[in-house]
Amino acid sequence: MDIPPVDAELALAEVRARREQVVDTNLVPRWFWPAIGGLMLLFIGAVESGIGWVIAVGTIGYVLGLGAVIVAVVRRTRVQVRFGLLGGRGVGAILGFAAGLTALGVALGFLLEALSAPFPALLAAVPVAAGLAVGGPLLMSYLRRLMLSRPLAGSR
Fold first, then answer.
1. What average pLDDT is seen over the chain?
2. pLDDT higher for 16 or 116?
3. What is the pLDDT averaged over residues 128-141?
4. 76-88, pLDDT tens digit by residue?
5. What is the residue range of 126's domain?
6. Are 19 and 152 in contact (CB under 8 A)?
7. Is position 145 within any domain?
8. 54 lies in a domain?
């Protein structure tokens, strides 16, 4: 049975549109990144205050806020992205992003501590939070392009 070329093109267009829909549904939303950065700053600031009740309130706020953010993201996501769609380059980009921000925060924190700066961890976390807010959406954009560039037929 021969399929007319126009029908094949329409079917492929439909498959591509569905794949794009699945990819877009599974990417972390833009608001996630500044929310995580803000929660991180709240928690670090509370801990560095050294005041018991501030630490307790900041910790509870962090846990509740993080839980709310995770629940909101999980409710938005309907399916799981397979490793084959993300690939080694995607995993490498995620790990590199996390490692880069971690290295920045730790190095800056130690430097500020050595310089006897007040609140060194909080000050070191500010560029990390900014990196999350700016870099997170860029990472998601890269992962989207990467996933959509994969061939429609996966290897078996």
1. 86
2. 116
3. 94
4. 776 566 677 778 8
5. 28-149
6. yes
7. yes
8. yes
In a domain, 120, yes or no: yes
Which residues, including other chains, have CB under 8 Å from residue 15's CB and lie 6 or more apart? 152
Q: Which two tokens stand for residue 10?
A: 């329409």
- Residue 20 located in a structural domain: no
- Give mean pLDDT, residues 112-119: 96
The HSE-up count of residue 148 (CA atoms within 13 Å, CB side) is 19
- Whether residue 133 contacts residue 29, with contact meaning beta carbons closer than 8 Å, is answered with no
Q: Report DSSP letters for the chain, one per residue.
A: -PPPHHHHHHHHHHHHHHHHHHHHHHSPPTTHHHHHHHHHHHHHHHHHH--HHHHHHHHHHHHHHHHHHHHHHHHH--SPPPHHHHHHHHHHHHHHHHHHHHHHHHHHHHHHHHTT-SSHHHHHHHHHHHHHHHHHHHHHHHHHHHHHHS-SS---
Return d(Cα 80, Cα 71) in angstroms, integer: 15
User: Once rounded to an integer, what is the mean pLDDT over residues 57-61?
Assistant: 96
Q: How many domains does the chain have?
A: 1
The pair of structure tokens assigned to 151 is 């061939």
pTM of the predicted protein model: 0.78
